[in-house]
Amino acid sequence: MREQMIAQKVGGRAGLAARRSGGPQQRPARRSGRESKATFGERLRSATRYFPFFGKVAVAVVLGLLIFAGYRAAASATFFQVRHIEVKGTARSSADQVQQVVRRELAQRGVWRADLDAVSAQLEQLPWVRTAVVSRLLPDGIRVRISERVQRAVVRTAAGRLVWVDDDAVVLGEMAATDQMPTFFLRGWSEDNTEAARLDNRERVQKYLELQHDWDATGLSERVSEVNLIDVRDIRAQLAGDDSQVEIRLGSKDAAIRLKKALSVLDGQRDTPRGGLISYVDLSQGKRAVVGFTSGKQVSSDSTQASSDGDVPMLDRDSSPAKKNAKATQAVKPAATKNPTRPPTD
Questions:
Q1: Contacts of 26 (CB under 8 A, 6+ apart)
Q2: Is residue 4 classed as helix, strand or coil in its secondary structure?
Q3: Which one of 81, 176, 247, 282 counts the least CB within 10 Å of its CB?
């Protein structure tokens, strides 16, 4: 026979003995209460972990406020008021005027709180000042480095004044008696205070510099007194010296080549009876030179021959039909007639 072994339950006999003896019985603890207490403790411990972080943030905020307050107090103190202004790079512009602008801009802010970009912008509004670099020299100094505009052309205004302008078409001031005389002047300046006028004037300055470079290279600049650029597509040069009454009309391109051809035509007619009456030479079309006279008469010649020969017969455009017919009649010779033969005599 097989023996059956029955496993004894833990606590079974102890509980049975306690019931029989009438002693206190062991009851299972309530697990739900323990779990709730453990959850609250864990939450409390997890919350206390963040106390150092919040404390650090609070300390940082307080320090930031203190630093800001100290900055405001230090910036407004007389310790940082402007006392020394160093200006470099001024030749045409006024160093005293630069210092006045700096003191005006920093009177309330001081060196520490100075808006250097705003000061630079104000200085660049002055005549001759192209750029201005401003830096601090703590505790009470400012350094200003000026880059001045360069005078590139002399403009003859509508009122007849001669003023310097730079590459950006900024008027720099009137030409002084001690200034070096430019090779020739620029005419046709727009004096309107508009953006469109400024763009047009800038284009005129660039065209002027291009003509100056080309004419200097070919030795023609000395014969020009001024160039009229009212329309940059219709360039006109007024000559200098004995030819000051003559205007050369060049059109929009090949100005150096056309000017040379026009001067050749002019020089070829100088010694003729009507040489002193020439008022303009028009080469704007590029092929034929049209010569105008003070009487209103015009004649034309082949400009390509003028550039090579120098002396070109002028073709009279305004000759009347009667003169043309007369010239044609003179050119035709009458036909020869045969003498009649005399009959033989007896």
A1: 11, 14, 15, 18
A2: coil
A3: 176
